[in-house]
């Protein structure tokens, strides 16, 4: 059974930092692209960041570019999202995702975690 388990969410003040982790199990994710989506209350789920299978290509939503960094450790089947200079508008449930191919695409990810809450206070 494929599982993506996120951790690292929580409450942080504006301007602070958090690091999300996503541990994958049930299959090998080292050869597929991974990423993060988020969903804020009353809003649609949106793409945040993606990373290809080797880690040498990354993609970001304009709203987080320069503040968030996605990375991966294939030996650990783990992907990370370092979030700096957090803003109140970053408050959302963050979902780890796994694609079926080695590159990030516009095709919806096949695998989804349960999500972790990130709340940024003023």
Structural description of this entry:
This protein has no helices and 11 strands. A hairpin with a 6-residue loop joins β4 and β5. The strands form 2 sheets. Strands 2, 4, 5, 6, 9, 10 and 11 form a 7-stranded mixed β-sheet that branches. It has a 4-stranded antiparallel β-sheet with strand order 1-3-8-7, with no helix packed on it. The N and C termini lie far apart (40 Å). With 122 residues, it is mainly β. Helix content is 0%, strand content 48%. It has strands spanning 3-7, 10-13, 18-25, 34-39, 46-51, 58-60, 68-73, 78-83, 92-98, 111-112, 116-121.
Question: Summed up, what is this model?
Answer:
With 122 residues, the chain is mainly β. It has strands at residues 3-7, 10-13, 18-25, 34-39, 46-51, 58-60, 68-73, 78-83, 92-98, 111-112, 116-121.
Instruction: Tell me the total number of β-strands.
Output: 11
What coarse outline follows from CA principal-axis ratios?
globular
End-to-end C-alpha gap: 40 Å
Oligomer: single chain
**Classification by helices and strands:** mainly beta
Contiguous helical run count:
0
């Amino acid at each position: 059974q494929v599982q993506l388990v996120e951790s690292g969410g929580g409450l942080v003040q504006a301007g602070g930092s958090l690091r999300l982790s996503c541990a994958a199990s049930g299959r090998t994710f080292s050869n597929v692209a991974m990423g993060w989506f988020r969903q804020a209350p009353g809003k649609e789920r949106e793409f945040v960041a993606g990373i290809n299978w080797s880690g040498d290509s990354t993609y970001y939503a304009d709203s987080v570019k320069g503040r968030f960094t996605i990375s991966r450790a294939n030996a650990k089947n783990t992907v990370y999202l370092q979030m700096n200079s957090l803003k109140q508008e970053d408050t959302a449930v963050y979902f780890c995702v796994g694609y079926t191919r080695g590159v990030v695409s516009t095709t919806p990810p096949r695998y989804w975690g349960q999500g972790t809450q990130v709340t940024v206070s003023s």
